């Protein structure tokens, strides 16, 4: 003993060896001996947290088979004579008990940086570098109940209660689509981090922690409003009939030449078909009005045969031109057509690559699909976000339609949305197209009146061509146009 209080043992001279040979020197206050053969130390919070990580298994050895040891440096026994060397560095085994299984309690996710910070209890070290946490055992769930298991590199513990994972680009692209709203909920689904067994390699117990681990998301930018698409061109004017006798000639760049000629003692009649992909162009005999209109049908100026690069979990989209100084964007390019399938038939509908377009040639675009109201797709229908394919067989007797909402989002938070219908056993079965043809699946329409799609089709270029051809035939045969 040494005269005085709480000074017999200099605790700062004691060092403990644990997992993989890791050592820690205590900082707790000095104590008195309880007898000539023992003393007890109640560790400070800092010492306890540090030792709990490296004394990671009950018994005398660690998870990585290292042997626990207590080393006492010279002068640890303050009451000993100064001339006596009392250092005792080896052979002082430690028996550990009551090591608890590690758990996850919560997590935060930074949408902009792709940083996942996890908080837990009883987190344990494992010898080696970047291997305490097996990141491949972590699964995040989010929007519409979607889930994704991480593929990023394993990490070390930051402390006995936290670790941080910086997601790789592939993980970030998918997770940003799942965790797309600031807070803890998206589309009625609560964010969660599930940890499968053996996620904390330092633990001797392969305990899983799959539920109750909420994730709080921050940094999600406000959605970028896509520029409006061009409206469809107006219907063409009726062909021009000249007010005087003579010759009239109509010309156009349509299929088959689009040229009509009438000569002789009757008023000249001219009629031409417009070129495919532009607005109508009609010319008549002298004095008749002329109309010229062009448009792009609502599509953006995409770069031919160029798609964003293939990336794990991402959907390839068209690349479009960007005006100098304009911000990057992700927009709808070609609206999806409705799909009609026979009752009982298997569904296979694929989103074409030109359905969306991005200004960045290296954009990483991820797709999510829900019903129009944000609810999950029917259980019989699956969606592959990388290929953009919907597949499944409706249950026997099912007849109706599913209104699908497809959300495209890039790594910068730009978002574009399309909706279309998959109708099963509806009217006009004769127009059912083979499943799986991208953007060529047919149009569902209700009984009794043309659908909006049919009405728009009548105003489209093909509809205009059909109307003008019928009018040209009526003029040739001396009849009247309807």
Description:
The protein starts with 13 loop residues before the first strand and ends in a 6-residue tail after the last helix. The chain has 3 domains: 1-99, no CATH class; 103-218, Immunoglobulin-like (Sandwich); 302-448, Immunoglobulin-like, CATH 2.60.40. It is built from 4 helices and 30 strands. The longest helix is centred in the last third of the chain and has 16 residues, at 461-476. The protein is elongated and about 115 Å long. It has 482 residues and is mainly beta. The protein has helices spanning 45-54, 169-178, 452-459, 461-476, and strands spanning 14-17, 23-25, 69-72, 103-110, 115-121, 138-141, 147-149, 157-159, 162-166, 185-186, 189-190, 192-195, 215-218, 241-245, 248-250, 260-262, 267-269, 281-282, 291-292, 302-307, 318-320, 330-332, 339-341, 347-350, 356-358, 365-371, 381-384, 389-392, 400-410, 415-424. Helix content is 9%, strand content 27%. Strands 8-9-5-4-13 form a 5-stranded mixed β-sheet. It has a 4-stranded mixed β-sheet with strand order 20-21-25-22, with no helix packed on it.
């Amino acid at each position: 003993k040494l005269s005085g209080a709480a000074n017999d043992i200099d605790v700062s001279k004691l060092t403990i060896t644990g997992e993989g040979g890791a050592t820690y020197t205590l900082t707790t206050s000095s104590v008195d001996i309880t007898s000539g053969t023992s003393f007890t130390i109640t560790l400070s919070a800092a010492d306890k947290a540090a030792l709990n990580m490296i004394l990671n298994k009950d018994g005398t050895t660690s998870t990585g088979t290292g042997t626990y040891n207590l080393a006492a440096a010279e002068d640890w026994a303050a009451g000993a004579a100064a001339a006596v060397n009392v250092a005792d560095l080896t052979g002082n085994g430690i028996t550990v008990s009551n090591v608890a299984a590690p758990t996850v309690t919560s997590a935060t996710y930074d949408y902009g940086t792709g940083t996942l910070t996890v908080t837990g209890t009883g987190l344990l070290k494992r010898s080696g570098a970047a291997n305490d946490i097996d990141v491949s055992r972590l699964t995040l769930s989010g929007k519409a109940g979607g889930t994704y298991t991480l593929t990023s590199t394993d990490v070390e513990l930051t402390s006995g209660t936290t670790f941080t994972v910086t997601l790789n680009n592939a993980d970030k692209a998918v997770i940003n689509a799942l965790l797309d709203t600031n807070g803890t909920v998206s589309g009625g689904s609560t964010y969660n981090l599930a940890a499968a067994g053996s996620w904390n390699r330092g633990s001797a117990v392969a305990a899983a922690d799959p539920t109750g681990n909420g994730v709080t998301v921050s940094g999600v930018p406000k959605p970028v409003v896509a520029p409006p698409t061009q409206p469809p061109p107006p219907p063409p004017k009726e062909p021009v009939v000249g007010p005087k006798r003579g010759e009239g000639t109509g010309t156009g760049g349509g299929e088959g030449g689009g040229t009509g000629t009438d000569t002789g003692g009757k008023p000249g009649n001219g009629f031409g078909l417009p070129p495919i992909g532009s607005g109508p162009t009609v010319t008549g005999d002298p004095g008749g009005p002329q109309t010229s209109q062009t448009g792009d049908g609502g599509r953006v100026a995409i770069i031919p045969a160029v798609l964003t690069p293939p990336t794990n979990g991402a959907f390839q989209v068209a690349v479009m031109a960007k005006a100098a100084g304009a911000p990057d964007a992700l927009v709808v390019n070609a609206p999806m057509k409705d799909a009609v399938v026979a009752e009982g038939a298997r569904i296979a509908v694929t989103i074409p690559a030109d359905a969306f377009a991005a200004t960045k040639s290296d954009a990483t675009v991820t797709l999510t699909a829900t019903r129009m109201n944000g609810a999950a797709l029917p259980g019989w229908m699956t969606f592959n976000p990388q290929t953009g394919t919907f597949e499944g067989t409706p249950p026997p007797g099912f007849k109706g339609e599913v209104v699908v909402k497809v959300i495209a989002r890039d790594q910068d938070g730009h978002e574009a949305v399309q909706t279309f219908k998959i109708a099963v056993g509806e009217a006009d079965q004769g127009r059912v197209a083979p499943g799986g043809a991208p953007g060529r699946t047919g149009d569902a329409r209700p009984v009794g009146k043309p659908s909006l799609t049919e009405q728009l089709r009548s105003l489209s270029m093909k509809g205009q061509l059909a109307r003008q051809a019928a009018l040209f035939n009526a003029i040739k045969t001396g009849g009247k146009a309807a």
